[in-house]
What does this fold into?
Amino acid sequence: MMQLPYYKLLMTFFISSFLIVTCMTIPAIVESAELETQQVSDDDDTTDGFEEDDSLEGFDESDDFEDVSVDLTAIQSKSQTRSFYTLGGFIKEDLGYSYGHEPDDIILSKIRTTVNLSADFRLFSDWTSKIVWNGFFDYAYENFGREKFNDEILETNESESEIRDLFLDGSVTHWMRFKIGRQIIAWGQSDMGQINDMANPRDSRELGTVDLEDSRIPVTSTKLSFYLNTWELNLVALHEIRGNKLPAQGSEFDIFQTITSNGITVEDEELPTETEAMIRIFKSFNGGDISFIWSDVYSDSPHLDFEKLTIYNNRPIAFSLTPRHKRIQTIGFSGNWVTGSWLFKTELARKSNTAIARSDILTQVKQVASTTSSFTFNKDSNAITPWEEKDLTQWMLGFEYGGFDDITLSLETIIDKVENFEETLTGSEMSNMITLNLSHQALNDLLTTRLVWVRFSENNGDLGRINIDYDLIDALNISGGIVVYEATETTAKLYPYRNNDRLFAALKYSF
It folds into this structure.
């Protein structure tokens, strides 16, 4: 079994500990300095070198106190001046242990240091700006030998540096608001599905290990919001198309491994450049809200498009597909309603022109090879049809219940229906996904235990995750847990990941 270079792990731990301790110490030093300054000031407040023994000396019991006037405008102005900018962020250490792998495989799958820096600016009046930088480096690849991994895995998983949020936001008038830059636009009610929430792609590099609010990827866009009483109109233009962050080919969560295992080459992903558009009409009322949403965007998940097929002596010797993104139109509805300890939520959407993969791609290749001696077909020939254009209807129904002491329970189901389904398509005409989320808080909310379970229909597998979070202090959090992938059918979506069960732990300091 591979011997772990423990000295590098210790170096990583001590370096990260030093950074965390340093960040924790700085506020204490500042506070100590302020206390010393205050003490010196108090010591200097003496009369003829003697301290006053009684702070009420000089006042008669019959003295009346005068009214004190407070200039709220001056205080507000002074407060705004002091809060022109706010700095923050966090340092986080992540460890992942893939105990389900074979002995000769990489078992310590993550030794990642993440640094997040943010700055919020109050420019003037009701205008603000924000910038967030996030970067990480994963020492696991260096510890086990970078030569064991392909370039795509190293580029995708070893390190990253990016500007996440970068936007300007403010009110033009009391009824119109303007926001431009890299931002997150979260529409919809589902915790797991992407039904009407079509603005931001997802970080899908580690299946099921990241919550929705952390997986959204900001994109450069312009958003105009108009307000009329309880009604709100949002107009959005998306200028940057990023697509989901997919697992690298050859990695443990490679979504194309079933395709490539059949000798098919998957080329580099191609991203479109055209501007996308979204519109939402939103209304809030006593106990809930409703939304009507329209979008004309590219799917964040790519489909595999035909690229090239080479036939020689009636045999295919090279066949390649390219991940591309299909432009789809969505019209939908979402809403929620609160009554007592219950929150009911729903979403409904109809998506036009979606790309549904076909299941007979290899059969098509054999048919072409049987009728052609030697030839190379390019993507313009349409010799192979890897997908079909279909309309898709999605519906989500769920609830949350908080009537138990320190326990919150939520459940939702998502149903997908492919219109005009054909037997040559993958999957089935109707499919569903059920998600259970159970959380418990204890020790005055310092300790949070959470269970997430996802069930895919038609024996496509189960995903389970348990998280335990504990706040050591206000700014320091320690967490750990386990994620499990269960699938027995070879055709199940989760079957390729059945050995990717993982233990994980993290230490995070926020400042």
Summary: The longest strand covers residues 387-404.
